[in-house]
Design brief:
Strand order of the largest sheet: 12-13-14-11-10-16-17
Mean pLDDT: 96
Structural class: alpha/beta
Strand content: 15-25%
CATH architecture of the largest domain: 3-Layer(aba) Sandwich
Number of helices: 14
Bound molecules: nicotinamide-adenine-dinucleotide
Shape: globular
Number of domains: 2
Radius of gyration: 24 Å
Largest sheet: 7 strands, mixed
CATH topology of the largest domain: Aldehyde Dehydrogenase, Chain A, domain 1
Length: 468
């Protein structure tokens, strides 16, 4: 049996050693989920909703303990872990408020069924919705509560069973999710945690599953899409981004915009799919913007993730430091200027100094490849046209932001950038009421919003004609 070792990235110490699920254990879990799912789906919606409401309430009650677990295994600063868990009930509420209506049978042509059924020519046309069945949810570590509940809450509410594979970097949190759901009343076999890394994820895809919902990198997402294609099951991919922001020359308060964008770039150490990863600023205000940006970054407190005032903790995956170092080296070799950071911090643990590069261009990796860390390139542009062209120059398409006093001006730029979310005077933001989706290498399908509920059900079209 293989062992999964959980490290604390702030210290490098071992937190736990867990037996990882092998292919046989995963097959057993999948078979148990298959057996349990019909009974779960047959329960009235109100019962499933009451269980999920209990889960939500337990989450509120246990927030601080759960945040400690998350912070220890991912290095997320405790205030940010509490913030994530504290905001998760709002997302669950969205699903509790909207799933039942999405499950209700719909008349396809309401006006056509007014005559009595059986009247000549009258065919009642009705759509009903079946749960997908057994759903595999392969998840990421950077926002495990958000990206996890986005999938398994609507899956459970619509009547599916879930095989949840947390990231190997957020496994203790994944196991805590399972405990909480079971305590709330979800039967053990209806939600199961699969423990392990990529090998366990790949074995999960070999099982008899009815859909796969994945959050993670483009490279893994492409593999998952291939496996799902062979099975002909729905696949949803929430992948990476290279999210751009453009600051136009008409912004009222350059320093405030710079501070907001610094937070959008460095919150959670830049380890957010929608973190601002590159900034374009109109040349007229570029000097003022760069100075204010660096000042904001220098104000960020780096430290022990367990301390309440820490803003920058360690990177969750030590290996990412190599990616950041390579991006800095590549940019400097091609003519960029380093305004701050650029190297590993001088302290134990996987810490990297917050890094700001200017005089950058699109020949540099830092402006084209996902960094997923505390690093940003700021490029001056001469016009909105140039900004729009550069923003669109990427394989990704998750989010894009424009800061301007003029909504029409911002919309004109944003409409030229193929992206799932468009922000005017805001960034790094997700709402449960809106579909979260990516274009290009940022993914397939949507979570959240009504679209994020409909993807968990299969429509059945009823053509009903009573005998004459
Ligand atoms: P990753 O692709 O390395 O791993 C994601 C998950 O896939 C993990 O659970 C991992 O164990 C599993 N996995 C790895 N290889 C597998 C395989 N061959 N078959 C099946 N499963 C496998 O990604 P990560 O480092 O955990 O997450 C960071 C990435 O996630 C970034 O690119 C980030 O942008 C993206 N992300 C996207 C969103 C979004 O909503 N779009 C949200 C969070 C994170």
């Amino acid at each position: 049996m293989s062992v999964l070792t959980i490290h604390n990235p702030a210290t490098g110490t071992v937190l736990r050693e867990l037996p990882a699920d092998d292919a046989t254990a995963i097959a057993r879990k999948a078979a148990a989920a298959r057996k349990a799912q019909p009974k779960w789906a047959a329960r009235p919606f109100a019962e499933r909703a009451a269980i999920i409401r209990r889960f939500r309430d337990l989450l509120v009650e246990r927030r601080d303990t759960l945040a400690l677990t998350q912070s220890a295994e991912t290095g997320k600063p405790i205030a940010q872990a509490r913030g994530e868990i504290g905001a998760t009930p709002g997302r669950i509420d969205f699903f509790l408020d909207h799933v039942e209506a999405q499950l209700a049978a719909r008349l396809a042509k309401p006006e056509a069924v007014v005559p009595a059924i059986g009247a000549p020519g009258s065919t009642e046309e009705v759509v009903t919705f079946d749960p997908l069945g057994v759903v595999a949810n392969i998840s990421a570590w950077n926002y495990p509560w958000f990206v996890g509940t986005n999938v398994y809450v609507p899956a459970l509410l619509t009547g599916s069973a879930v095989l949840y594979k947390p990231s190997e970097f957020a496994t203790l949190t994944g196991m805590a999710m399972a405990d909480l759901l079971h305590e709330a009343g979800v039967p053990d076999d209806v939600f199961q945690c699969v423990v392990g890394g990529g090998v366990a994820g790949a074995a999960l895809l070999e099982q008899d599953i009815d859909g796969v919902f994945f959050t993670g990198s483009y490279a893994t997402g492409a593999r998952i899409a291939e496996a799902a294609a062979r099975k002909m099951i729905p696949v949803q991919l929430e992948l990476g981004g290279k999210d751009p922001a453009y600051v136009a020359d008409d912004v009222a308060d350059v320093a405030a915009v710079a501070a907001g964008l610094a937070d959008g770039a460095f919150y959670n150490n830049g380890q957010s799919c929608c973190a601002v990863e590159r900034i374009y600023v109109h040349a007229k205000i570029a000097d003022a913007f760069r100075a204010a940006f660096v000042e904001a970054v220098k104000g960020f407190v780096m430290g022990d993730p367990g301390e309440g005032d820490t803003y920058l903790g360690p990177l969750t995956r030590e290996a990412q430091i190599g990616v950041l170092e390579a991006q800095v080296k590549d940019a400097l070799e091609k003519g960029a200027t380093l305004l701050c950071g650029g190297k590993r911090a001088e302290r134990p643990g996987a810490y990297f100094e917050p890094t700001v590069l200017v005089d950058v261009d699109h020949s540099m990796e830092v402006m084209r490849e996902e960094s997923f860390g505390p690093i940003i390139g700021i490029q001056a542009v001469a016009s909105d046209d140039e900004a729009a062209a550069l923003m669109a120059d990427t394989a990704y398409g998750l989010t894009a932001a424009v800061f301007s006093r003029d909504r029409a001006r911002a919309a004109a730029v944003l409409s030229r950038v193929p992206t799932g979310s468009a922000y005017w005077n805001c960034c790094d933001r997700v709402s449960p009421h809106l579909p979260w989706s990516g274009r290009g290498h940022s993914g397939l399908g949507s979570t959240l919003g009504l679209e994020g509920i409909r993807c968990f059900v299969k429509p059945r079209a009823w053509h009903l004609r009573a005998p004459a």
